[in-house]
Predict the structure.
Amino acid sequence: MFAEPNAVSSENPAGAPAAGHVPSSAASSGARRPSAGGSSSGGRRAPYPVRRKVCRFCAEKVRDIDYKQIQILRTFTTDTGKILSARITGNCASHQRQLTRCIKRARNLALLPYVSR
C-alpha cells in the first residue's frame, strides 16, 4: 500500500517529470522533418528555377519617372487602384519610391483615380 522510501520513481518530489523524460506530445511538436530537397528555406520549392524580376526602369535606363505618363503608371496599379508592391513588379527601391510619388501626384491632379469600382 505504501511506497518504500528507497524505491526509485520517475517523478521528482515536486511532482514534475524526471529531467530525462520528455512527453510524447512535446517531442512531436518541436521536431522538424528533414527537407527532401536539401534547401533550408522552409517552404515549397518551385518545380523550376525562378527567374529574378528586373526593374523595368533600370533596364530602360529611365532616370526620372514622369507623373504625366498615365499609361506607364497604370501598369503599376491594380484594377481597384492600389499601388503594386516592388515584390510583385520587380522594381528596385529607388524606382519604387519614385513610382509611388508619381502615382500619388497623378491622383492628386485627377489624372489617375484613387479608387476604381
Remarks:
- Helices lie at 24-30, 56-59, 70-74, 86-89, 93-108.
